[in-house]
Amino acid sequence: MRTTILVSSAALRASALLVALASVAPSAAATLEVSVIDEQGRPIENVAVYAMPAHGAGGHGASNQAVAHAAAAPAVMDQQNLQFTPHLLVVQSGTEVTFPNGDNVSHHVYSFSDTKTFELSLYKGDVYPPVLFDRPGIVVLGCNIHDGMLGYIVVVDTPHFARTDEQGVALIDGVPNGDYVVTAWTPRVRSTSLPPAQLVTVTQQGTVAAEIRVAGRLAPAHEHSDSGLTWHRY
Length: 234
Description:
By secondary structure, this protein is mostly beta strands. The chain has a single domain (27-233), classed as Sandwich (Immunoglobulin-like). It is built from one helix and 17 strands. It has one helix spanning 2-24; strands spanning 29-38, 48-53, 75-76, 78-80, 83-85, 88-92, 95-98, 107-112, 117-123, 131-133, 137-143, 150-156, 161-163, 169-176, 178-185, 198-202, 206-214. The strands form five sheets. The chain has a five-stranded mixed sheet with strand order 6-12-11-8-9, with no helix packed on it. Strands 13-2-15-16 form a four-stranded antiparallel sheet, with no helix packed on it. Strands 14-1-17 form a three-stranded mixed sheet, with no helix packed on it. The longest helix has 23 residues, at 2-24. The protein is globular. Mean pLDDT is 83; it is low at 1-8, 17-26, 57-68 and 227-234.
């Protein structure tokens, strides 16, 4: 009888351990594959795509307190061949971004955007500390020396984001199951012409596909030899 009782106790302990492990196991997550195309079905490169939980989504300027943000990894906006590299950078709010100058000429980086106003006076190399981007929104970058330098930082209040590649595809990994509002942003259309956000439901592991179509005429991709007048086009 005593042996039976001991075996039963061990089984109960094992069962309790399994329940505890299950409670801390990660929830199912998927890769969100978002294709961004124009009216003719052609892919659009360098589009920021991000997914917000549907219960807390509110666009670029709205804070989403429901998403628990882990410490965001630092990001880099380089300067090479008299251009910002990448031309468009997507980061999570709370991210620090460094602005190294990889050119052999000096640059003077600045932004007058409401989301983040800052200025890094004339410099070469990597001499300035990182700049903290703590509010969601769009940051337009320029160089006070080279008018053709134009760049963008899209700050989003979610860890689920990506940028489209040459095939117009953005792959967002590690998206937990749930309902999401998926938004795309590109400087090649005015804010009033941006495509509407889409509701996407993630209910499985693997890949969940979505498509966003940008209607209307797209401005040409930025040519880095252009003058600063391109600021007024976007």
